[in-house]
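Incident review: delayed structure delivery

Summary: a single-chain prediction request sat in the queue longer than the usual turnaround. Root cause was a stuck worker, restarted by the on-call engineer. No data loss occurred. The affected request and its eventual output are reproduced below so the record is complete for anyone auditing the incident later.

Affected input:
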Amino acid sequence: MSEQTSQILPKNRRRLRLDRWGLGAIIIAMIVLLPIVSVIWIAANPETNVWPHLVSTTLPRYLRNTIVLMLGVGGLTIVVGVGTAWLVSMYRFPMVRWLEWALLLPLAIPAYVGAYALVDFLEYAGPVQTLLRDLFGWENARAYWFPQVRTRTMATLVIAASLYPYVYLMARAAFREQSGAAYEVAQALGVGPWRRFFKVGLPLARPAIAAGVAVVMMETVNDFGTVDYFAVQTLTTGIFSLWDESRNAAGAAQIACLVLTLVVVLVVLEQVGRARSRYFGAARSVRPIVRPRIIGVRGWIAGGLCLMPFLLGFVLPTSVLLSHALDAPEVWISQGLLSALGTSVLVGGVAAVVTVLGGVFMVYGVRLSGRRLPQLLMPATLIGYAVPGAVLGIGVLIPMAAFDNALADAIVAITGFEVGLIMTGSIGALVIAYFVRFFAIAQGTADAAIGRVTPSLPMAARSLGRTAGGTLAAVYAPLIRTSVASALLLVFVDCIKELPATLLLKPTYVDTLATRVHYQASLEDIAQAAPPALLIVVVGLVAVGLLARANR
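Output delivered after worker restart:
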C-alpha cells in the first residue's frame, strides 16, 4: 500500500504543479477579475451604509431611466440595424453597394460626440431654429413651439444612432450566410416579401441579432457623456454623483454592483437565447440568395431609408464639428490640444500593446499548460468587456489608491523620500483599467488566430528543439500577426474613445481627447470641443475601414 502511495503522490504533484505559462495565465486572469471583485467587496463592507437612503430617494429614478434607455436603444437598433441589413442583403436598389459600407461609419462617432453635435444643431441659436425664425419672421422663442432637445428621448435617439451598426453588422452577416433555397421554397408557396422576412429570415438570424442587441444594451449602460449632457440621471451618472460630490466609495460601489447585475442578466439572457436556438444549413444545398432589383420610386425609397441612419449617425455630427473647426481655425492651436492628443496616443498605445500581449500570452499559456484552473479562468476574463467603464473605474481606483498610499508611506518611513502616488498619480491606473475593459477583444482575437494554426507546425518546431517561447516567436507570431495587428488597432481605438473610466482615473493634470471633448462641451464651447472630437472620429474611421475590409 505504501509503495502504491509513493507512486501516486509524485503524479498528483505533477498535476498540481504549474509551469510558468499556466501561472502567467492565472495571474493575468486575476488582474482582469480583481477590479470586479473589489467593487463587490467595497459594496458589501461599507463604512457608512447609504443604500437605504438611495433606495428611498434617487435610486428608483436612476434605475428607471437606465432600463428605459436600454429598452429604447435596443428597440431602435433592432428596427434600424435589422431593417437596413435585410434591405442591403436581399435587394438591389440605387446606392446599395455604397450604403452597404456607409452604414458602418457611425461606429466611428462616439455617442457623446453625436450628442454635442445634435444639441448644437437643434438648439435655439443653431441653424434649424435660426432658419425657421428667418423664414416665418418669428422674433423669439415665445413666438413658436419647438420640441425640447435635452430629453431622454433625444438621448435614446443619439445613442441608437451611434450603436445600431453592431446589430447591422451581425444581422447582415447572418442574412448572407442563409441559403437561397429556403427563400425560393417560401416564394413558391406564395409567401410575400414581408412574410418571408418574418417567417424565414428573422428566425434564422435571431441568435446573431440577439448578440448584437446585447452588446448595444451593455454599451448603453456604460454611456456617461451622452446622458450627462442631456441631463438624464442613470445608474452611471449616479456613480459619478456619489463619488464626485460626497466621495462615498461604498455608495458608488453599491450602485456599480447594481449596474454589474444588469450586465450579467443581459449576458445570461443572450447566452440562454443562443443556447435555445439551433439552426443548421445543409452544406450541399447552400446556394447564394438571388437579390431582386427594386426599381422606380420603391428603389429610391429603400435607398432613402438606408441613407437616413447614415446621415443622422455620421454626416450630421461630422458636419457640425467641421463647421465649427473651419469657422474658427485658431482652435486647432489651442492650449492643451496637442498635450491631450499625445496623452491619448501614449496611454492608448501602451494599453493596446500590454492588452494584446497579455491576451496572446494567456491563450498560448492555457493551451500549452493544459491545466484545469487556467482553462476555467480564461472564459471568465471575457466579462471585463461587458462591465461599464464607471464600474471598472471604481474597482481600480479604490484598491489602487490604498496600495499607492501604503507604498508611499512605507517608502517615506524607510528612505525619508516622498515619491507620491505611483499608479493613481500617473497613467498607470488608466492602463490597467483599459487592460481589464478591453482584454476580451485581445483574448478573443488571439484565441481565434492561434486556433487556426495547424497543430503539426508547432509540434515540428518542438521536435526540432525549440522551446515554448521560441515556438511562439518562430511559428505562431508570423501566422497570427495580421489578427494581432487588428486587435492592437481595435483596442487602441476603444481606449481613445473611452470616457467614464478615464474621467474617474486620470490624474488631475492630465487630459485625453475624450475628456477634453467632454469638458469643453460641458461648458457649451463646441468650437473648442470640435478639434479633439474630430481627431477621435478620424481614429475611429481607421478602425471602421479595417473592419469593413475584414468583412468583405
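Verification: The chain is about 75% helix and 0% strand.
Action items: add queue-age alerting; document worker restart procedure.
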